[in-house]
Structures are given as C-alpha cells and as structure tokens.
Design goal:
Shape of chain A: globular
Structural class of chain B: mainly beta
Radius of gyration of chain B: 19 Å
Largest interface: A-B, 46 and 61 residues
Oligomer: heterodimer
Order of helices and strands of chain B: HHEHEEEHEEEEEEEEE
Number of strands of chain B: 13
Chain lengths: 574, 238
C-alpha cells in the first residue's frame, strides 16, 4: 500500500516535471547517498545538485529554489553537509517540496524504483558504484551496498523481500558474499572479472545493449561530478598513466567516436592520451565549468564541483638503488606509503641493456628490496655505475599498473652483500576443510610472491605472504572457493613467482614457473611439507601423503597389538 | 569604483543589444562593484539626478539609458587557466587545449552529444521558438544575430562550414564586435539541446577589459522565470 502511494507520488512528480524540471538536492557526506541520489535523479530526468561544503549548500539552497513552484526533492543523509539546509529551502517558499530524511536514502531510492532489478556493489570504495551508476539510472535499478560495517545478510534479505526479478552483483564484492547467500538471489548475474577496468567494460556493454551511443565519458572512478551519472552516456574507467588493451579494443569495436573528460577528475590525462594514441579517431572534449545564471550580465564559469570518492591511495617511495655484484642484479629499495600496491620495475643501463623485476605485491607500510637481474659488471667504474634509468610501474591492480614513475639514478653504488639462502617450491594444494591453499616450501630463508591461475576465465592472484622457511614448511593462504571452483582447479596449471632471501626485507633471489594446483582429500591428514611436488613436474600428485597414511595405519595397528599383548601379560592397563 | 568603471566603458557584453537594436529595456539597479570573478551588469551611462516637476508645467527631459537585457547572459573566461588538473592548488597536469584556436561550448545539457552537433540545421527563429521568452521580444535571437554568418570551424572531426549557422557577436571593452558565438543544436525545438559555441581568441579582451580566451552569450530568462538555468562549459582536447 505504501509502495503504491509512493508510486503515485513519483508519477505526480513526473507529471509536474513536464512543466517544471524536478531538482533533487542531496545533503550528505556519504558517497553511497550521493551516487544513489544521482541515479534516482537521472533515472527520472531531473536535475541533480549536491554540495561539498556548507557554503555551497547555502548557495544551492538559494539557487535552485528561486522559482517557488519548481518541484524540489530534498534528500538528507545521516551525515549532512549542512544541518539546517532543509530550513533554508523551506524559507525560500518552495511550493512543491518533498523532504526525505531520517531514513536510508538508498532504501528510499529502492522504494521509488520498479522491482525489476537490483544491483549489489561494494561500499568500501566508490569506483564500482560509480562505474555501474549510469546503467543503474538507465534501467531504474537501485544500488545496494555491501562492505565492511554492513550486514550482507540483512541487505540480501531486504532485496529478497522486495521481490526483484533479477539481481546483478557487480565487482569484487561478489567474492565477499558467501555462495549460499548468492544462490538464494533471483536470476543472479555476476560481473567480477578480477579487474575493475574489465568489470567496467562489461558494465558499459550492458549499458550499450539497452541504449547504444557512440559517445562515452572517461573517468578515474576516484572522483564524482554530478553529470557523471547520465542515462545517455556510460562511464569508461581510465587509469592514471595507462588503460587496458581491452579498453582501446572495446572503443574501436563499439564504434565509440567521442569522449568527455572532467577537469578536476583524478589525474587521467596520460591514460586518456595513451588511449587516444591507440584510437586516433576518438574525439575528446573536456567539461571544465559550470555557468550560473541570474546575474543579468557577464559572468565567469565556476569550476566543476568534484567530490572525492573513497578510493585506494596508491603511493610509492623509491628509496635507493644499488648493484649487487655476487647476484648480478640491481637492488631497488622501495616503500609503499599508500594502500596495497603491485609494482614492477624496469631498469635501463647505458651500454649494458635493460631488464625487469618480478611483479611484487606490497602491503601498506612495507619497505623491501627487490631485484632487477642484469649483469652490469662491465659498467662498474670507480666502484660505481655511472647511470641507470628506472621505470617503476605500479597500481592497485596487478593487471593494470597505471602509475608510472621514471627516475634516473647517477653514481649507483655497488655491493658485495652475499646471500646464502635457498628456497624451493614443493606443491600448491587447496584444503577444502580449512578453505585455504597450502603452499609447501623447502629450504632456508624468507619468501614472498604470487600464484596466478584462471577460474572459468576469471584471473585469480593468490598472494604468498612474507614467510620464514626452515626446512619443509607449509604456508597457508585463506581463499574461499565454491565446490564448482574446487573441482575446476584440480590439476589446473598455475603460474608462480616468488622472491626469497636471507633477510625478510631483502629478497633478491627469484623463482618462477608453472605448477599444478591440487585438491586435498578430506580423509588425508595435513602435514607440513607433505605432497611436495617439484615445480618442474616430478612426482605424482598426492603420492607422498598416502604413504604417510599407510605407515601411520601400520604403526597404529602395531601399537594396538603391542598394548593388547602387554595388557594380557600383566593383567593391568594404565 | 564601479561607477567609474561604468562611465569609462560599457562593460556588459549584453550592452550590444542596446547598441544594435537601439532600444531601451527595463533597467534593474546598476552600479555594481566590479571585482574579478563577480558577475558584471551594465552600468548606467547617466549620472543620478533630479528634475523638479511643477503643476501645470511641462518640463522636457531627455534621458539616455543603456539597460541590461533580461533575456541573455554573458560568460567569459580563460580556458587554459580553467583546464588545469590537480589536487587543491597544486597543478599536476593540463589537458592540452590550443589557446590559438578551437571553441568553447556552453549548453544547458549536462553532457553535450558532440557526435551529432554539426548535423542539425537551425535558425534564429527556431531558437526564439525553443526559448519562448525570446519570441517577440525586442532583443529576440532574430533581432540579435545573423542566420548564416559563422566562421568555418571543426568540432573535432566534424566540420561546420562557414556561413551555415546562426551567429551572435559581442563586444570587447573597446566596443568592437569581436567575439563570435555560433548557435548549434541537436534538436532545434528543445532549448536544453542548444549549444553555444564561442570561438576561442588567444589573448582576447573581454567586455570588462580583462584578458580572456572566450566570451559567449546565451539565452536566460531573468524577467518571467527566475528559475536557475545552469550552463555547462566544454572545450575540445587537442
């Protein structure tokens, strides 16, 4: 009944909107409220306004209420930008004012939309929500946010209770929702390629299926401007210095001929420039200002209002570089001063050549030395190497290292540091009971690295955390796999690469190759170092644990027989 | 200060209508103080004064008043300064936009469809119909510009041949009609689909005498409808 009333209310607003455009004003600091409200406003063809600070709130409250009979929908979040904004709007004498506050704005939007499709996105960062927002507005599909601090079960219950025809789970949040909960959703569809840029291209594809256009908007996904959500144009994510090769191919394949960028959006100049170099036919326009009228004369356009969405901070400090003579490799000392980052470093030395490091994953605050293998002995002069140009490529995603820093080092010092550590990989086994990969190493030293494979064409990167190896050692890495995925990865080839060394933060040795992942049988006990398989492919899968099990059974039977005999001899059993 | 500036110059770009059409229009209070970034309004060319009126007498009074139009709004600015990209005040990157050529586009559409911008023909009469407040006004679009008088330019790969689009000219601080606004649209009957292309002039002089890359005029009803109309500005990235 309430929903019917609300539907009638929305319909009435739409009729009113034929005469006067409805303006949706959101007063909230929460990115979830802002994006949801933009989706709502654009879905119904209304104006949308939000403020970054109280001063702007006051301006908006006056500017959009100059005509009292122009409909205003005022949405106030739990964390408003300006506490008394509603009073200011009311004082303006607005005749068609709807106020929504004291409730979830996302729920309000969900109630206003038809119950055809719901979209679930992660709440921690704004990138995924923004990426799918134009499609959400186009199809009048509300966004539901799940993440840290939110109850996934409650959100999913709410979705089920509303009776949606289908549910789209967008982005990495799909891996945070237990499979059992997902399976209960109606007509579930998942877009989670393991890469937010690839996810975005799928979102754009979905948009183009409903509404084809040859113009898109290029954004970083880290900032929000009010016209980024539009039912006419999808958003294409661009990296800071680069774009996926799939992106340029997608632009070509779909006949995209024009793009709009936003001045004040995150620094994507190089990324978009690179894209245009790959697609020369692409025209590019920059939205740079907003011109407010009513001054009866000349005016200067104001800068766009750019809201900074929560997003990972990618920041790396290149501390120093030296050349290790025994290892024949350059040692680059780096510190991750931002959130989690992946790094690959390339070095060019005049007269010697160039080389690249392994892909290294760095936790926040991590400081480590990584190796760039290269025999530069011939370049040593006076205990130094005259010059080397380093190109560090890094990003939040292993598939798109979209930040590039280039540094030229002069008089690079040399080092005789000897490292006698030795670490080898045995096997990679998934244990369904512990829901973890057990990676068996042998040797002595510290190790860290990655294991990569694809599950149903979705790339997966498992990280081996920095671990001490002393003899046969199993490193356990928690990772949730569904039953189907477990079946899929049995005997699946995986690419591994790891670094190791005698010190936990100086890992200058490298090892890389391919190994098959296996599934651990539930009846086999887990033993450190068990099931070790040579990375080059030597021993049978799971052969060693069976031998151990048989020996254990024999020992148990023998022990039982021995005790039985002993008991029979003394007449006592303790 | 504002009055002094007003005496020296006709600072509002909209004064062009007073000059072109030689009409007086309803005047609103003037003598605004002019500072950088604040709105400019036409300053009265006549000093304030009083005229005594005596019963039974007829006193001839001659007044010359240049008035602000209530149907148009002007925008001007420096595009290179606007396109800096960075965090706060620290500039990191700039979109490379030629300062010697190109256009600034202004529209009520929050995102312009650039791919269809050169393919729809339009006249000033169409514009008067779409912006109904202009229709029949002394300073209507038809009375303010010329239907086919534009300079040739490109919208990226798409050409706009010369003398094919309605054009409006506005003045610099010397009163010369140097700033060209070309009328484009993707739907001639929909006011929100109109796009006003201002041809960039490197190191140009705006109506207020400041250096500007563009100066543009757009319809805005300040008389009948006080509702806010926001125009969005775009440049082409080279």
């Amino acid at each position: 009944m309430a929903a019917n009333k609300f539907g009638a209310f929305v319909f009435a607003l739409l009729l009113l909107g034929m005469v006067f455009p409805t303006t949706v004003i959101v007063n909230s600091l929460d990115h979830k409220d802002i994006i949801s409200s933009a989706v709502y406003a654009k879905a119904y063809g209304g104006n949308f306004a939000f403020a970054l600070d109280p001063k702007q709130s006051v301006f908006i409250a006056g500017y959009y209420t100059a005509t009292p009979n122009e409909p205003i929908i005022y949405l106030e979040g739990k964390q408003p930008v300006l506490a008394n904004m509603e009073a200011i709007i009311r004082d303006a004498g607005v005749q068609n004012l709807t106020v929504v506050r004291g409730r979830s704005l996302q729920e309000f939007v969900a109630d206003a939309f038809p119950k055809e499709r719901a979209i679930i996105v992660g709440s921690q960062y704004g990138q995924d929500a923004l990426s799918i927002a134009p499609y959400a507005a186009l199809t009048k599909s509300p966004l539901y946010f799940i993440g840290e601090g939110s109850d996934a079960q409650a959100v999913l219950d709410s979705i089920k209770a509303k009776g949606y025809g289908s549910v789209l789970i967008y982005g990495s949040v799909a891996r945070q929702i237990p499979q059992s909960l997902q399976d209960a959703l109606p007509q579930k569809k998942v877009i989670d390629t393991g890469n937010r840029y690839s996810n975005n291209l799928q979102a754009v594809s979905e948009f183009l299926k409903v509404k084809y256009t040859t113009q898109v908007m290029f954004v970083s996904g880290k900032t929000f401007e009010k016209s980024m959500v539009d039912t006419n144009y999808p958003l294409v994510l661009a990296g800071r210095s680069d774009v996926l090769s799939e992106t340029s191919q997608f632009i070509k394949d779909n006949g995209i001929t024009a793009g709009v960028v936003f001045v004040g959006d995150e620094d994507i100049v190089d990324g978009v420039t690179k894209l245009r170099a790959q697609v020369p036919s692409l025209s590019l326009f920059a939205k740079f200002g907003e011109g407010f009228t009513g001054s009866k004369g000349g005016n200067v356009p104001q800068p766009l209002q750019i809201y900074r969405l929560p997003s990972p901070e990618i920041s790396l400090e290149l501390i120093n570089m030296s050349y290790n003579i025994p290892l024949k490799a350059f040692s680059l000392r780096v510190k991750n001063t931002g959130d989690f980052a992946a790094l690959s470093a390339g070095l060019s030395v005049p007269g010697v050549g160039s080389s690249d490091s392994l892909l290294v994953l760095l936790d926040p605050g991590t400081e480590t030395s990584i190796a760039i293998p290269m025999d530069a002995s011939s370049a040593i002069s006076g205990g130094k190497i005259a010059q080397g140009t380093l190109t560090a490529r890094y990003g939040e995603d292993t598939r798109l290292l979209d930040n590039i820093d280039t540094v030229t080092y002069k008089d690079i010092p040399v080092s005789d540091y000897k490292d006698s550590s030795s670490v080898s990989l045995g096997s990679i086994v998934y244990n369904p009971e512990t829901k973890a990969f057990e990676v068996a190493f042998d040797g002595d030293g510290y190790v860290e690295g990655t294991i990569r494979f694809s599950i149903n064409e979705v790339p997966v990167t498992i990280r081996i955390p920095n671990s001490k190896i002393s003899g046969p050692t199993a490193v356990s890495i928690k990772y949730l796999l569904s039953q189907d995925e477990q079946n899929f990865i049995d005997s699946l080839p995986a690419d591994y690469s790891f670094r190791y060394g005698a010190k936990p933060d100086v890992l200058l040795f490298e090892s890389r190759g391919t190994i098959k992942t296996t599934i651990k049988s539930s009846i086999i006990p887990s033993l450190p170092g068990s099931g070790a398989e040579n990375g080059a492919g030597g021993q049978n899968d799971g052969g060693f644990p069976w031998i151990i099990a048989i020996i254990a059974v024999i020992i148990a039977v023998a022990a039982f027989a021995f005790l039985k005999m002993k008991k029979g001899g003394s007449g006592e059993f303790e | 200060m504002g009055l002094e500036v007003g005496k020296m110059r006709i600072i509002s770009i909209l004064a062009v209508f007073a000059v072109l059409a030689s009409v007086s229009y309803a005047a609103l209070p003037v003598n605004a103080t002019v500072t950088a970034g604040t709105p400019l309004t036409l300053t009265s060319s006549a000093t304030s004064g009083t005229v005594g009126a005596w019963g039974g007498n007829v006193t001839p009074v001659n007044l010359v008043i240049n008035s602000s139009t209530l149907h148009w709004q002007g925008f001007f600015g420096n595009i290179t300064g606007s396109l800096g990209l960075g965090y706060g005040t620290s500039l990191l990157k700039k979109w490379t936009i030629s300062t010697a050529a190109g256009q600034v586009y202004a529209s009520q559409a929050s995102v312009i469809d650039f791919t269809a911008l050169n393919s729809t023909s339009v006249t000033l009469a169409n514009m008067d119909s779409a912006f109904s407040f202009l229709s029949g006004a002394t300073d209507s679009a038809a009375n303010s510009g010329t239907n086919t008088n534009n300079t040739f330019f490109n919208i990226s790969h798409y050409q706009v041949p010369n003398n094919t689009r309605p054009t409006l000219f506005t003045m610099n601080s010397s009163g010369a009609l140097v700033w060209e606004t070309v009328v484009l649209t993707t739907n001639a009957s929909d006011s929100t689909k109109y796009v006003f292309a201002g041809l960039i002039s490197n190191n140009g002089v705006a109506a207020d005498g400041t250096s500007a890359d563009f100066q543009i005029m757009v319809p805005e009803d300040s008389l009948g409808n006080l509702a806010a109309t926001t125009y969005y500005f775009y440049g082409e990235v080279r």
